[in-house]
Amino acid sequence: MVEASKHWFEKACSNAPCNTLIHPWTQKCTDATASMLMSCIRGSYKFYAMVYLIQILMKGKKLSKQEMIEQFKLYLKSGIFGLTVGSSFVTLNCIFRALFFSKFSYYTTVLLPCTVSGLAVYFEPPYRRVLVVNLFVNLVFEYWLRTLEMKGWLRRSPGKETFIFMLGSAAFFYLMRLERENTKRTPLFWFFTPPRVSKEVGEPVKGIKGRSPACPHKGNCINYVLKGTAQLFGVGCLMTMLRTIIPRILTPTKALKSLRLSHLKLGLFFGGYIGIYRLVICLLCRTYGKDSALYAVPAGFLAGAAFRASPSTPIALAPLTSSFQILGSWAYQKGMIPEHWPVVELLYCLCQGLLFHARVMHEDVCPRYIINLMHTVTSSKADEIQAAFIQRILRTL
After folding, report:
1. Where are the transmembrane segments (predicted)?
2. In sequence order, which residues have a C-beta less than 8 Å from that of residue 385 and are 6 or more positions away?
């Protein structure tokens, strides 16, 4: 894959007309804006349909009618957010070229318009903005890691990523248990939310039957551990099967034949993760007769070992970025960061600009999530734009 360096980009593309770079599928800028908008309407709602379906599955419970209505409203808002971000790339580039810049440049062609279009995040409600920026910060870290690896300064491996995930889970679960006592909860999206620290105390309990008065759950410990394990195992397997079957839904026979035992890996990760966490918490509560937020440290660390079943760089980094999210929320609450500062929105704009810039200029190290996101939301128009950039550069080599 050709990397669009600053030197080669400006040599090949600076004097190019709009239609050869920004909208190669049509000559006129107005037609390009209209067609990009229609493509993004289809693509954005298609993308967010899967996102909201996964979020509902992760909740692990049946939604009420009112909750379904609220989810649908959020789905509509997210779709507007996605189509605005996707379609504005063409519009802003053509406007900037006509009004402010006479030539395309390395930083003003993708980085600038995609940073500005990040303001569309205001279509999302405040708590969802926090979730979105957490995801994009996580992806920026992944992009930097991939860049370091490409330059030979870093070497990734499933073992290293598992260890990072174990450390991150230890810190994250500890902060989440402390967060449960907070009146203003930080919006988080994770596999499950640990229960608050139990105030009950009792005598140490031997054996495996029953429960300790200190355990932060109802019912006996074995059922508590097995129920969580089975539930998250099912969610993980279902997510993998949906991701495999939906693209082949028009050919059901081929869709079913595409299923493999390897598709159980995500379920093993999810189920093992919650199962080990709950098991360790219960063992510590039964041993000492009391509960503590600190129990989340060994429980989270050991639970993180389940990540080895289905390693993934963005998931490996997720507990760390979510921990920073909680700490940032506490800084807001304590007045260390003024509430009127739009830190979340500005951070999102910067992250989006950087990641979309990487999608076009540095595809080899761009996170796969961003490539798939732009492909789906723009109904593959992003692929055409990126191909036009590369073809233009190849002609000058």
Report:
1. 34-54, 74-98, 104-123, 130-146, 158-176, 224-246, 266-285
2. 21, 22, 23, 24, 89, 360
- Averaged pLDDT for residues 257-274: 79
Average pLDDT rounded to a whole number, residues 142-158: 90
- Is residue 250 scored above 50 in pLDDT? no
- Cα 134 to Cα 123, 124, 161, 317, 343: the distances in Å are 17, 14, 19, 11, 12
Decide: 174 and 294 in contact? Cβ < 8 Å.
yes
**Phi/psi class of residue 152: alpha, beta or left (left: φ > 0; alpha: ψ in -120 to 50)?**
left
Residue-wise over 368-389: b if at least 16 C-beta within 10 A, else e? ebbbebbbbbbbebbeebbebb
Instruction: Give pTM, 2 decimals.
Output: 0.83
Q: Which of 264, 334, 330, 276 is nearest to 300 (CA)?
A: 276
Q: What is the DSSP string of 295-328?
A: GHHHHHHHHGGGGGGS--HHHHHHHHHHHHHHHH
| Summary mean pLDDT of the chain | 85
Asked if the model's pLDDT at residue 326 lies above 70, the reply is yes
Give the bridge partners for 290, in sequence order: 201
| CA distance linking residue 379 with residue 368, whole number of Å | 16
| CB-based contact 230:271 (threshold 8 Å) | yes
Please give the single-letter amino acid code of residue 186. Answer: T
Q: First-to-last CA distance in the chain?
A: 14
In Å, how far are 88, 157, 294 from 349, measured between CA atoms? 14, 31, 36
Give the count of alpha carbons within 13 A of 352, CB side only. 26
Report CA torsion sign: 188, 190, 194, 195. positive
Contact 4, 362 (CB under 8 A): yes
Those residues whose C-beta lies under 8 Å from the C-beta of residue 251, and which sit 6 or more positions away, are none
Report residue 234 as tokens.
Answer: 């099912």
- At 50, the pLDDT band (50, 70, 90 cuts) reads confident
- In angstroms, the CA 44 to CA 26 distance is 21
For residue 247, name the pLDDT band (cuts at 50, 70, 90).
low
| Residue 340, pLDDT above cutoff 70 | yes
Q: Could you tell me which residues are beta bridge partners of residue 201?
A: 290
With a CB cutoff of 8 Å and minimum separation 6, the contacts of 12 are 392, 393, 395, 396
With a pLDDT cut of 70, the percent of the chain lying above it is 92
